[in-house]
Design goal:
Radius of gyration: 37 Å
Number of domains: 3
CATH topology of the largest domain: Tick-borne Encephalitis virus Glycoprotein, domain 1
Helix content: 10-25%
Distance between the termini: 20 Å
Number of strands: 33
Shape: rod-shaped
Structural class: alpha+beta
Number of helices: 2
Strand content: 35-45%
CATH superfamily of the largest domain: Flagellar hook protein FlgE
CATH architecture of the largest domain: Sandwich
């Protein structure tokens, strides 16, 4: 019957507009939620099979929510060094436990360190690949190699000296047999600083030798901390440039560190042969000739404690220590999907993979179509309050109109019943 069909159609409109209003309400409520993605109401007409050219049977309307998960939110700078945002496609990989937890995905990059040093957000732990100090992933960039990012994985820092670069002038006007001394700093593998004396001895025309005393602690110069071995023979050209060293490369070995550090071998860079970028031999022009040291630079670092964590661009997690060293400890993975709008949404901006979305493909930041990670930035909500208010007014008007249809049908039923009495 046409009246009952009109009533049914109007009731479906009330239901559909109510659901649409719920979506609009959620969108407005989350206008300030980090990385929130809006849901749009998609209306579909219902048509009955009994309709024909001479008789119309009303159907109605249904509504379904369409998640706009792929919509990019604006990245906004923050003052938190562990905040991250993705510009482009992809999601952060998280788990609900530090190890062995269920895998999920999110765009909400508001991560903080918990009391155990893990980066987490609402109980979900950020996953990444362990790296060496230069930021290169250790192993493969695969799901099996992912682990919860623990910022305390390297809570201290210290490295042995492996190379020392020396630039100095050895006086050509020194007499054969004259000796001079200078010193260089050497760190052992435990980060302890030591001073090692270099003795420069002129052995003949255009020839010198460098020998090395046992290192002593910079905090206690009266106590030896190791045994040094190695003598370097140095030859100069007639123009004062370096000719050669023997051995080449020049090295000094240190063993028997009293603090238990590993044995050390320090490579000595005296400059390039035929050049004057390292050791030279020119006249000092002094009554009493002396060695003029321009610079002695050694690598290696003293012991340092973890002082801060920051996520840099491209998703590299950097640790900075009290000795001034900054090293990479993790690289954040980006998960991409064939159909990201098919992901199942949960509270706190968490998504789960479904048959519709397909399985996650893991990439490094900015690689193979994956979005680029930016540190100290967060993705804003995609809610546009102006458009949501417009949709809300439209839903309100449609709801009111449908309610008027019900009132009209009710009046027509009353008229029909009155006619039958």
């Amino acid at each position: 019957m046409s009246l009952s069909g009109a009533l049914s159609s109007a009731i479906s409109a009330l239901s559909a507009q109510s659901q649409s209003l719920s979506m609009i309400s959620d969108n407005i409520a989350n206008s300030d939620t980090t990385a929130y993605k809006t849901t749009s109401g998609m209306f579909d007409a219902l048509v009955t099979a009994s309709s024909n050219t001479t008789s119309y049977a009303s159907g109605g309307v249904t509504v379904s929510g369409r998640a706009n998960i792929t919509q990019q939110g604006l990245l906004a700078a923050t003052s938190n060094a562990t905040d991250v945002g993705i510009q482009g496609s992809g999601f952060f990989v998280v788990t609900d436990a530090k190890s062995g937890g269920a895998v999920a995905y999110t765009r909400n990059g508001a991560f903080t360190t918990d009391n155990a040093g893990y980066l987490q957000n609402n109980g979900y732990y950020l996953e990444g690949w362990r790296t060496d100090a230069d930021g290169n992933v250790v192993g493969s960039e695969s799901a099996s190699n992912l682990e919860a990012i623990n910022t305390q994985v390297a809570s201290t820092s210290g490295s042995a000296t492996t190379k020392t670069t020396i630039a100095a002038n050895l006086p050509s006007d020194a007499a054969t047999g004259d000796t001079y001394t200078s010193s260089m700093t050497v760190y052992d593998s435990l980060g302890a600083a030591n001073s090692m004396q270099i003795t420069w001895s002129k052995t003949g025309t255009n020839t010198w030798s460098a020998s090395f005393a046992n290192p002593t602690s910079t905090s206690d110069t009266t106590t030896g901390t190791g045994t040094a071995s190695g003598t370097v023979d140095i030859t100069f050209n007639s123009d004062g440039s370096l000719a050669s060293t023997s051995p080449d490369p020049a090295t000094v070995s240190i063993s028997g560190w009293t603090d238990g550090a590993a044995n050390s071998t320090v490579t000595l860079d005296f400059g390039a042969a035929g050049k004057t970028d390292g050791l030279t031999q020119y006249a000092s022009g002094e009554t009493t000739p002396s060695v003029n040291v321009t610079s002695i630079d050694s690598d290696g670092l003293s012991y340092g404690k973890l002082s801060s964590i920051a996520i840099g661009d491209n998703g590299v997690v950097n640790a900075t220590y009290s000795n001034g060293q900054t090293i990479a400890i993790y690289k954040i993975a980006v998960a991409t999907f064939a159909a990201p709008n098919g992901l199942a949404a949960s509270s706190d901006g968490i998504y789960s993979a479904t048959v519709t979305s397909g399985n996650a493909v893991l990439q490094a930041s900015g690689e193979n179509g994956a979005g680029t990670i930016f540190g100290s930035e967060l993705e804003s909500s995609t809610t546009d309050t102006a458009s949501q208010f417009s949709s809300m007014i439209s839903a309100q008007q449609a709801y009111s109109a449908a309610s008027q249809v019900i009132s009209t049908v009710s009046n027509m039923y009353d008229t029909l019943i009155s006619a039958m009495r």
